[in-house]
Amino acid sequence: MEQNIVVVKFVGSDKSYDFYDHVGLEKGYMYMIEADKRIYTSPVLVVGRKSSSIYSNVSITGARRLVTLDSVLRKRDHSAIKNLDKILFSNGRTIVLWKDGTKTIVNCQEGDRFSKETGIALAFMKKFCGNDSSFNEVLQKYAYGDVNKPSIKEEIKDLKMKYQL
Length: 165
Fold this sequence. Notes:
By secondary structure, this protein is α+β, with helices and mostly antiparallel strands. It has two domains: 4-76, no CATH class; 81-132, no CATH class. 26% of the residues lie in helices and 34% in strands. The protein has helices at residues 60-63, 79-83, 116-128, 134-143, 152-162, and strands at residues 4-10, 16-21, 30-35, 38-39, 44-51, 65-73, 84-90, 93-98, 103-107. The protein has a five-stranded mixed beta barrel with strand order 1-2-6-3-5. Strands 7-8-9 form a three-stranded antiparallel β-sheet. Strand 8 and strand 9 form a beta hairpin. It starts with a strand and ends with a helix. Mean pLDDT is 76; it is low at 57-63.
C-alpha cells in the first residue's frame, strides 16, 4: 500500500528524516509535529517527499514514525522566493522580475542613499502587498510622516482614551 512520506529537517540539524504523513504536510512549511504519540519540541521544515515503495519490505511501525498531529508554523513560506526570477539595479532603482511575469520596481527616494538590501526588501514587501501603490501609502503615512498628523503626545492621549488605559 502506497504511503505518503515527507522528508523533514529539524531546526538546527542538517540531517534529514523520513516520516509517514497522514495529515497533509506541505513542502516549504515549518511544523510542530507529534508522531507515534511523541511530541517533538523542535520544529521541522518539510524539504521533500518520497515514494513509500523504497520501504516496501519494512513495517510502518518498525521503520518510520507516523505523523499524527501537526501545528503549522507559516514563518517559512518560501513561495515569494520561489517566484523570484531576477533582480536588477539601475540608477537608484531596484527592479525585481518574477516568474509569474510581473515586475516590481522600487525607486530610491530623493534625499535617501541607495541601498541594494533596502531596495530588495521593499520590492518583496511591495509584491506581498499587491504590487501597487498601497505599500507606498503605508510608507508615506508611517515612515515619512503626515504633516497633518497629531503629535506623539496627542496620539498617546487619544490611544489611552480609546482603550481606557
